[in-house]
Specification:
The structure holds two protein chains of two kinds. Chain A is of the alpha/beta class. Chain A contains six helices and five strands. A five-stranded parallel sheet of chain A has the order 2-1-3-4-5, sandwiched between helices. The chains are: A alpha/beta, B alpha+beta. Chains A and B meet through helix 2 and helix 6 of A and helix 6 and helix 7 of B.
């Protein structure tokens, strides 16, 4: 990946309203090998502002990867996903659904809205850390992401 | 002229008489034909006549009846206060009463509900007041109505029960689902504490953290199992033709590790095709086989599964050579979170058989166990056979 060559950190946007989950994800990414910068927005409205560089996010970087929770206040993950995937500038950014919901309906709907993958948050800490590491391993080292900047 | 007039008057008089007679005969034949018992009384409430239906219904003869006051008929079985009031108070004032219901013990008929209709009429020829009393036995109709009402009430009770069951399931599902989130926090951060600070604080701290981690893990297991249990009834998947031998193979595949570790030998006879929720049949088989492996005795587990048709249903049996169950626990083992052993002896939450029961009942069957401690158990369940 070009990031590693240039030494520029991978920009990750975590959209998650539960501070505990935010912290756990941060902890898991801290252990990672890839240089990354984790940005956090706590609801869907904020997430869209971040992505469209509005208001206090005017200088926000374009994320290389989005981790999206489904149940959130104001604008939930399904709406955010739909907006991202119908926006010609944003739709190439891989969106990983990271949620507690095991409901078939949510899984189907997410893929129908072109989620790039769906991960049910493992309940056990070890498994959660493993899942985050797997995300990092796959999406940040194995996968070739679309070239950024070309909005 | 006069003669002619007289003759005419006479002729008219005769024809009036004749018309009256025809009318009377007509009326009498109606009274006689009507299927309801009818009584004709005079103004002193003596029976002038009764129709055939009356004699048949109350098993009396005209001789015992005619000329008698109604209250004296058949061992005074008509001496009913409510009827007296009708005939003596109400009828003289209003000439008619309709659909008056009385419930009474009749000597010949037992307890009956009768509907009475009465009418005061003036008999032209006899120039007297008469009372026509029609008696209808509505006991059977009433009973049928009562039964229908009870059936209706029962139906409503069942609907209400089904609704409350559904709500309870929903509640269990939502509760266990929403409880997962905060619990995950407790459990994750106590685990994180343990990972980072084990051995860095003091001995007490390590012990406390261990208990917190263990408690949270246990709670998670319980919630997961409760969620699984409530999901059994919440499934919307309809029943489809299901190969129970394929379901059996799948259950065996899912249990591969446990079978290998426990050196279990599992055999089966031919198993029938079913109309069922295939995933639930796999789960049912898996839970029963899993239990048979888990609760093994000194010998490695040997399990035999068979099915035979009895009437309209298949009776499946899962026989094992495990530790067995005392009869006093035969019912309790199917209740959620009921366990017969300590967690050190056998891990688990006590949901497996509760889920089995729910699956079987959802398919319209029953589940039970026959067992003797130390001699193994046989679990039976029924599933309705496919109708041909």
């Amino acid at each position: 990946m070009n990031n590693r060559k240039t030494g520029k950190p991978v920009e990750i946007l975590l959209v998650e309203d539960n501070p505990g989950d935010v912290r756990l994800t941060q902890e898991a990414f801290k252990e990672g090998k890839v240089l990354n910068k984790l940005h956090v927005t706590q609801d869907g409205v904020e997430a869209m502002e971040f992505l469209r560089q509005k208001g206090k996010y005017a200088k926000a970087p374009r994320p290389d990867l989005i981790l999206l929770d489904l149940s959130m206040p104001k604008k939930d993950g399904r709406e955010v996903l739909a907006e991202i995937k119908t926006d010609k500038d944003l739709k190439r950014i891989p969106v990983i659904i990271l949620t507690v919901s095991q409901a078939e309906e949510d899984i189907l709907k997410s893929y129908n809205l072109s989620a790039n993958c769906y991960i049910i948050k493992p309940i056990d800490l070890e498994q959660f850390v493993r899942a985050v590491k797997a995300i990092e391993d796959f999406w940040l080292t194995i996968v070739t992401l679309p070239p950024d900047g070309k909005r | 002229m006069k003669d002619k007039l007289k003759t005419k008057e006479r002729l008219i008089g005769e024809s009036v008489q004749m018309r009256q007679r025809v009318a009377e005969e007509y009326a009498e034949s109606i009274v006689e034909t009507v299927r309801e018992p009818l009584l004709v009384l005079d103004s002193d409430l003596r029976v002038i006549s009764a129709n055939r239906s009356f004699y048949q219904t109350f098993q009396v003869t005209p001789r015992e009846t005619e000329g008698k006051v109604i209250y004296d008929l058949g061992n005074r079985q008509w001496n009913i206060p409510k009827l007296r009031k009708l005939l003596e108070d109400i009828l003289p004032k209003s000439t008619v009463f309709n659909d008056f219901e009385i419930e009474h013990d009749f000597e010949t008929l037992g307890r009956r509900i009768m509907v009475l209709n009465a009418r005061r009429i003036y008999h032209e020829t006899k120039r007297m007041q008469m009372i026509l009393l029609a008696i209808e036995d509505i006991t059977e109709r009433k009973r049928a109505e009562e039964k229908l009402k009870q059936a209706e009430e029962l139906k409503q009770a069942i609907v209400a029960l089904e609704r409350s069951n559904k709500e309870l399931e929903q509640f269990a599902y939502v509760a266990s689902h929403d409880l997962q989130e905060p619990l995950r926090m407790v459990s994750s951060f106590t685990q994180l504490l343990a990972k980072r600070y084990q051995g860095k604080l003091d001995k007490d701290a390590d012990e406390f953290i261990d208990y917190a981690v263990a408690g949270a893990k246990r709670m998670q297991m319980l919630l997961n199992d409760l969620l699984a249990y409530s999901r059994v009834g919440a499934r919307v998947k309809s029943f489809e033709p299901t190969d129970s031998e394929a379901a059996f193979d799948q259950a065996i595949a899912n249990l591969r590790v446990a079978i290998e570790e426990g050196e279990a030998v599992i055999t089966r006879d031919r198993l029938p095709p079913l109309i069922a929720d295939d995933l639930q049949i796999v789960q049912l088989f898996q839970n029963l086989l899993g239990n048979a492996i888990k609760f093994h005795g000194k010998e490695p587990p040997r399990i035999h599964v068979s099915a035979k048709q009895e009437g309209n249903e298949w009776v499946f049996s899962f026989r094992d050579n495990g530790i067995g169950i005392a009869p006093e626990y035969f019912d309790r083992i199917f209740v959620i979170f009921q366990r017969l052993h300590s967690r050190e002896e056998y891990p688990g939450t006590g949901t497996g058989l509760a889920i089995c029961k729910k699956i079987v009942e959802r398919h319209g069957g029953r589940i039970w166990v026959e067992s003797e401690p130390g001699k193994g158990s046989t679990f039976y369940f029924t599933i309705p056979a496919i109708r041909r």
